[in-house]
Specification:
The structure is a homodimer. By secondary structure, the first copy, chain A, is of the alpha+beta class. Chain A has 3 domains: 58 residues, Orthogonal Bundle (Arc Repressor Mutant, subunit A), CATH 1.10.10.10; 207 residues, Bira Bifunctional Protein, Domain 2 (BirA Bifunctional Protein, domain 2, 2-Layer Sandwich), CATH 3.30.930; 41 residues, SH3 type barrels, CATH 2.30.30. Chain A contains 9 helices and 14 strands. In chain A, a hairpin with a 5-residue loop joins strand 12 and strand 13. In chain A, helix 6 crosses helix 8. The interface between A and B is medium-sized, with 28 and 28 residues. Strand 8 of chain A pairs antiparallel with strand 8 of chain B, so a sheet runs across the interface.
Chain lengths: 324, 324
């Protein structure tokens, strides 16, 4: 955790770019003495930040590269709550599993679990999710919305909108949403979202949004069985991207849409979601557990359920399916 | 766990009542040798059953009283799945908590956690639930329905119907349902139900139905602050009841309605529920987290949500509230 003063110092250094900032300037921005600045800079160095200092010039933050450690994520994070508590790991079984444990241990709303690698990462229907070391964003965010469990599936859609817009901002790439939880570029999967919850009949206790984003993989990084159906932002954008910048943009967007949702309900989110969705306004086939329904996807409901109108004009509510 | 042969022996002894059954008779009913019978009887005695034996007469089961130990619950249980695996405790923090742990450890559908006493039993909204030693039924049942999480709240209503009918069968008492989760006799609370779930957006992983039933408490057993709002089956029926018989009837009813629900959907359950509900068809006040709405309770939806029509004719969907 970084204190308020240290956060001010980091923000100032970060916006200063390559320029040195004097101790006096930093002291004014952070609202403390120059002696305190020196002490806080030392603490920040202890916490892993690389800060260069030069006599008579002051301090400068050395570029942070593609690290997604707590210190790098907090530096420049523009949220109030989301991602403010970070649990970073080199390698985990699954970030969802750790987030569930933290939820039980009363971790606060906005807690983010992130790992360089997941050994047993999973997607919908307990399917395997390939999450190799250092190239993607594998993270789980804990929320505690005061809502009934019927509303939980909407958060997959809120997260989808937040991620689509973050990728547009940071990577300038156009991403499509495929119901319920996939983000695609040119038909290839770049992101999966898995929302899990613990609840009683009336009230969500904890909601955990798992996000897996293929960022800097090259074509060769994908196993052959995935190469035709998966892609990465780097492959599509022809360059590497900063994972921490992307995470920060996602946290900021999610916080904004979460607040809009809690104040105004699902309608504004639904409109955004439908504008990015390739599933809606087409004839598709939905393969459910017991059935296969072909029909016109007319939209989603207030509860995130897909509506399919079949040839006879009957509307089917699809809670769970694979879409073709 | 009791093997198939031992279950046959117990069923035979149980239906024999006070009569002795010869080893030969038991061997024929269980489909094994007389020597095997002797061995199984010894095993049953080890497992806690009190079985009397007399030379030339045979075996007889001694009355089991009000015990709710695994052996007593399994004896005479008429279900296929529900309550077939029992975890019995003298005293626990809460049976819900243990059931959640067992769910994580891949316990099978139908697993029942039951305790003589709960130290920190809780109801809706994390409210305290008074569950003193030996007088009530404090239990949690694990189900794993292949359903989306939106359907979970319906299980509180399914359980309510199953319990109302079990109390009618075993105790000959008329019980009313108060939305969402209380059972009342003459306006006093006799049972609370708390349905909790672990799920992802599309699929319930585990559903835990907690049931607290005041069975054999006397008026003096209730703390003074509860005496005007709570009652027990013994107080209302003027006699003590067998907890194990009641549990067996609840498991049987729940299994039946669960199967009906999975095959035919919520409609048949909804009709039963509404016929027992005092909340429906009246003008009531619902106090939600942020609001207080007075209106005519017109019914419940397919998803177990209460519908309130206010004076202006607007229909409100109530997911969570206290009702007056």
């Amino acid at each position: 955790m970084v204190s308020e003063i240290r956060r001010s110092i980091l923000t100032a250094l970060s916006s200063g770019g390559d320029q040195f900032l004097s101790g006096q300037e930093l002291a004014e921005k952070a609202g403390c003495s120059r002696t305190a600045i020196w002490k806080h800079i030392e603490d920040l160095r202890q916490a892993g930040f690389v800060i260069e200092s030069k006599r008579k010039k002051g301090y400068r933050l050395v570029s942070k590269g593609d690290s997604i450690k707590e210190s790098d994520l907090l530096l420049g994070l523009k949220t109030e709550t989301l991602g403010r508590t970070v649990h970073y790991f080199e390698s985990v079984e699954s970030t969802q599993k750790i987030a569930h444990q933290l939820a039980q241990e009363k971790a606060p709303e906005g807690t983010l679990v992130i790992a360089e690698e997941q050994v047993t990462g999973r997607g919908r229907m307990a399917r395997q999710w390939h999450s190799p070391k250092g190239t993607g964003i594998w993270m789980s965010l804990l929320l505690r919305p005061l809502l009934p469990p019927q509303k939980a599936p909407q958060f997959t859609l809120i997260a989808a909108v937040a991620i689509v817009e973050a990728i547009k901002e940071v990577c300038e790439l156009k991403v499509d949403i495929k119901w319920p939880n996939d983000l695609l570029i040119e038909g290839r999967k770049v992101t999966g979202i898995l929302t899990e919850l613990q609840a009683d009949s009336e009230q969500i206790h904890s909601l955990i949004i798992g996000m897996g984003i293929n960022v800097n993989q090259s074509r060769e990084d994908f196993p052959s069985e995935l190469s035709s159906i998966a892609t990465s932002l780097a492959i599509e954008g022809n360059r590497q991207f900063s994972r921490s910048s992307l995470i920060q943009a996602i946290m900021k967007n999610l916080e904004t849409y979460y607040a809009i949702y809690m104040e105004e309900g699902f309608v504004p989110i639904k409109a955004k979601w439908e504008s990015y969705a390739v599933t809606i306004g087409r004839t598709i086939t939905a393969r459910t557990l017991n059935d296969e329904i072909t029909g016109y996807a007319s939209g989603i409901t207030e509860e995130g359920v897909l509506l399919l109108v079949d040839q006879s004009g009957k509307t089917h509510k699809i809670y769970s399916a694979d879409i073709e």
